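Project standup — Tuesday

K.O.: blocked on the structure for the chain from last sprint. Re-posting the sequence here as requested.
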Amino acid sequence: MPGMPDAFSEDSTGTIIAVDVTASAKADLFPSGFNEWRQALGCRVTAPASEGRANKAIIALVAKTLGVPASSVSIVSGMTASHKRIHVYGLSKSALIRILQSR
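H.V.: unblocked you, prediction finished:
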């Protein structure tokens, strides 16, 4: 995906991913494209955006896709919004990009 590296920012403990979420989708999918305007990866989850169900599904899906435990993934901003920033502990920006490009 062209522009995909722009969705990532690295810090001392891992990498933050900018994500645009579609809840109540027909299927779970991460990444589901790249939003150039928001510089964010797409994420689709079948869980509804109520009572934190979509957020839990996002964490599980991102962790599964990246091959890390769910405890290594957290939502750092956008808990009630469709645009979120997700922190993946212990993986560098380059490692995340390699994993996602290999899928």
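K.O.: great, moving the ticket to review. The chain has a mean pLDDT of 94. The CA atoms of residues 36 and 55 lie 23 Å apart.
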